[in-house]
Design a protein that fits this description.
This protein is an alpha/beta fold. Helix content is 34%, strand content 13%. The two termini are 27 Å apart. Bound molecules: FE2/S2 (inorganic) cluster.
């Protein structure tokens, strides 16, 4: 191979003591001398962990990436980074997204890498890796782990969104513990992440619509052989990207972000999309605001029939033609010339896409739901914004005025929600405070708080719920999320009291607390908003530096990029 002056030659291309050190310890793995002839060195950033069950197949996946890298004449080197398992980490994996991104950024920059393959799966493992890689800006490609096969229970298809239904049925006495346990065993039948259009699938669609993965990446089920082929092809592609010096900044333009917002509306993606895309844009120095999510999704209806906004599962999306079919249908709205990792435009990449099942992917002319994407709400209760996902909400509640039933924090909610004497009815508005990024800290997915047991027993299935927290991508309901400024930052949410009237008007994009400005100011003056800052460690750093949800909840000093140059070279 003709030697190009790749970044890794600053390590392996050296002579003398330094070159000796850089190569000798690598050779202990059996890497021969000719592998250090100046060929591209490709890092495979792996989030495999037995504590992240959604990513438990990533060691095998990495082997398929390596095949492609070798095949294209590169040298693959796999390295682990902090893996964020959504189901096990406490208090919430979101608290550690920014920490993982720091790990990724520093690991990439500090090592002899020319290009990077990011192995992403469970919810936060995608944004954390992409954010970290953006702050280095090397040639980078994403390989998602793929969704798991659809779960089964009593002959019916199930997945994560059913968890909420099962839980409510159990609390209402309609599903006993034994049946709950049987359903638990049928939920996760294979490798892969959640099988609905939850946050993990949304993130996989996000990287595909941004152009960060090969076409088709999002929907191929984890156990399908096509996933292994895609991994191998991605290994091949990253070597080409390094040779052609195609960096993240060549792909992640403002137009690519606009495309991602529109595609996300078409598929009814998770509300977490907003916070993660804002954070990624912040790393790239792209001027993206929360209002852009409303602007660019306003004309896009729901054209994918996937839970939680619809009926089907990621496996069905794959069999119907995958995300390229959705993108092809949206082409007239998209910035068609954006380039993906394979060097082709959006339009070229979906040219041959074909829909095989119109029950799963429909046309713009005949959508499953005219309203999709996110509505960004403004008003005296959320001066910097809040979001609602209309496709997951109940139409009769989209314009609603009700009396607030206030929970000061999540413990207060848990203690009182099922109390027989809780003063609540189906017209009430449930308000949960202190679950924002700084206040909780970490912004947990509790915004779709369960309804009071006594109302469930009456058959109530939805109520307006408002909080400064997030909601699982698999959740649904008329749920106002990401209220900003959050309670801990002195937001108006913090002064809402039981019995205050609140109006949600999704059509007018407003969220209004029926109090005068003077009354709000007076209550704020008398309110103690001081939060307990942890004494030490990462959580202290997080609380001191995390930005509001409307900015992506990144740490202020992590926004932007430091590039790939190593600041000091001690050798
Ligand atoms: Fe990992 Fe849902 S728990 S994707």
């Amino acid at each position: 191979m003709k030697e190009q002056n790749f970044r890794s030659s600053g390590w392996f291309g050296r002579t003398g003591k330094d070159g000796f050190i850089y190569r000798a310890w690598m050779k202990k793995s059996g890497i021969p001398e000719h592998a250090f002839d100046g060929r591209p060195v490709i890092g495979i950033c792996n989030t495999w962990s037995e504590l992240t069950p959604c990513n438990s197949h990533f060691r095998e996946l990495a082997e398929h990436v390596k095949r492609g890298v070798y095949e294209a004449g590169g040298l693959p080197v796999e390295f682990p980074v902090l893996s964020l398992g959504e189901t096990l980490m406490k208090p919430t994996a979101m608290l550690f997204r920014n920490l993982a991104s720091m790990d990724v950024e520093e690991a990439i920059r500090a090592n002899p890498l020319d290009g990077v393959v990011l192995l992403c799966g469970c919810d936060k493992t995608t944004p954390s890796l992409v954010m970290g890689a953006c702050s280095v800006n090397l040639p980078t490609i994403v390989v998602s782990g793929g969704p798991m096969l659809t779960g089964k229970h009593k002959g019916k298809s199930i997945s994560t969104s059913d968890l909420w239904r099962f839980s409510e049925a159990n609390r209402a006495g309609q599903m006993d513990d034994m049946e709950l346990s049987v359903a638990e065993a049928g939920m996760c039948r294979s490798d892969g992440h959640c099988a609905v259009m939850g946050t993990a699938s949304t993130m996989a669609c996000m990287v595909e619509s941004l152009g960060l993965s090969l076409p088709g990446n999002a929907a191929i089920p984890a156990p399908d052989a096509a996933r292994k082929v895609l991994a191998q092809m991605s290994g091949h592609e990253i070597v080409r990207m390094v040779k052609e010096d195609i960096k993240l900044s060549d792909i992640l333009t403002r137009a690519a972000f606009e495309n991602a917002i529109m595609v996300n509306a078409g598929i009814g993606g998770s509300t977490n999309f907003v916070i993660h895309l804002l954070a990624i844009a912040g790393r790239m120095g792209i001027d993206l605001s929360i209002d852009d999510f409303d602007t660019f999704s306003a004309n896009i209806p729901l054209i994918a029939n996937l839970q939680p906004s619809g009926d089907y599962f990621m496996e069905d999306l794959y069999y119907s033609g995958g995300l390229p079919v959705v993108i092809k249908e949206l082409l007239p709205y998209l910035n068609q010339n954006c380039i993906a990792v394979n060097g082709k435009s959006v339009a070229e990449n979906v040219k041959h896409a074909e829909c095989y099942d119109e029950n799963i992917i429909t046309t713009m002319a005949n959508p499953f739901n005219r309203s999709s994407g996110f509505i960004v709400l403004k008003g005296n209760l959320c001066e910097s914004g809040a979001i609602i996902k209309p496709s997951a909400a109940s139409a009769p509640l989209m314009k609603h005025t009700g009396k607030a039933v206030v929970f000061e924090n999540i413990d207060d909610y848990k203690k009182r929600i099922d109390a027989p004497d809780l003063d609540v009815d189906e017209n009430s508005v449930l308000v949960l405070k202190n679950v924002g990024p700084r206040g909780y800290p970490g912004m947990p997915e509790v915004g779709n708080m369960g309804l009071p047991a006594k109302l469930l027993a009456k058959g109530v299935t939805d109520m307006v719920r408002i909080s400064d927290g997030r909601m699982s991508g698999t959740g649904f309901g008329t749920v106002v999320l990401h209220v900003s400024p959050e309670t801990a930052d002195g937001g108006t949410l913090g002064v809402v009291q039981n019995g205050d009237l609140i109006t949600l008007d999704v059509y007018e994009r407003s969220l209004h607390l029926h109090l005068s400005n003077d009354e709000i100011a007076e209550r704020k003056k008398n309110r103690k908003t001081e939060i307990k800052i942890e004494a030490r460690g990462y959580v202290r750093l997080y609380q001191q530096h995390v930005q509001g949800a409307h900015l992506g909840a990144d740490l202020d000093f992590l926004r932007g990029s430091s590039g790939s140059k190593v600041a000091k070279d001690s050798h």
